[in-house]
Amino acid sequence: MRSVPVHHALKCSGLLLAFTFVAAASQTIRAQSSQPQVPEWAQPGSATHQQVPPPADFHRPAVTFDKPIGIFTGQSDIGGPLVPGSAEIDSATGAYTIHSAGYNIWYQRDEFRYLWKKMSGDASLAASASFPNPDGFGDRKVVLVIRQSLDDDSAEAMVGEHGVGMTHLAWRDPRGAQMKDMSFRFGGTLTNIHPKRIGIEKRGDSIAIFISLTGEPMHQFGPPITMHFTEPYYIGIGFCSHLPATVDTGVVTEVSLTDAAGQVK
Fold it and tell me: Distance (Å, rounded) from C-alpha 218 to C-alpha 194?
């Protein structure tokens, strides 16, 4: 067998080592570049960071899927979250499981997974919400939403139940405005209440929140707001993790949607 000079073997070993190093470095760069780049403003609030509104001109288009699910005719990732969402329905129970990232449903634009149907006239929508992941961010929320469009800054009215239990009626009117909400709230860490069921009703230009705290009949909570939607509008359910690049899960059960007011149940 022909022997290989020592200096030649060392040279080959050095080339192999250099190639391995370059390949590993390239793989690391590719992995880093594939990680979503989260703007500082989109980071959730914490003891050391305050979430602030997005820049006024910041928008991302919705990603819409021609994929009916249950009673809903379409679904969209509103605001193009950095990580795609998904949803499935249990055909036996009718429970919707929604997976979504998204920095928030707030300020002047939103990011969340939305299951929707186009409707005209009055409407009543009700559902029960739960959060299977005990370690999710406290401000994550299951929402019942009426929206004018699928744009991230659409005019909208929503009833949202947060992971900590706080539930409220909030709205953006007109398009691109900062969200507002009712001055009253309940639930959360102070009272440790998660509503048994939440609902939203559209009666003409009157939008109201409905609640069942412990299983009693659904009842309106506080005064309605006045907001006009051009027909047809979108109505449906959604979920937002409140973490811009981390997917979490909300489960929405016993969904009831009718094309009339006075049917929140």
Answer: 14
Token output for 51: 């979430």
Handedness of CA 182, 142, 117, 85 (dihedral sign): positive
Tens digit of pLDDT for each residue in 15-51?
A: 444 444 444 444 544 444 467 899 999 999 999 999 9
**Strand pairing partners for 171?**
157, 180
Contact partners, residue 45, CB within 8 Å, separation at least 6: 51, 139
Classify the C-alpha dihedral 128-113-225-121 as positive or negative. Answer: negative
Task: Map residue 32 onto helix, strand or coil.
Answer: helix
Instruction: Give per-residue pLDDT as tens, 232-254.
Output: 999 999 999 999 999 999 999 99
Which pair of structure tokens corresponds to residue 222? Answer: 């506080």
Strand bridging mode 219-220 / 105-106: unpaired
- If you write DSSP's letter for every residue of 175-210 in order, what string do you get? TTPPPEE-S--B-BTTTTB--SEEEEEEETTEEEEE
> Residue 31 and residue 25: Cα distance in Å, rounded?
10
Helix (H) or strand (E) holding 25: helix 6-34
Write out the two tokens for 228.
């006009």
Specify whether the CB–CB gap between 252 and 165 falls below 8 A. no
Structure tokens, 10 = 């060392």
Euclidean distance between CA atoms 257 and 115, whole angstroms: 12
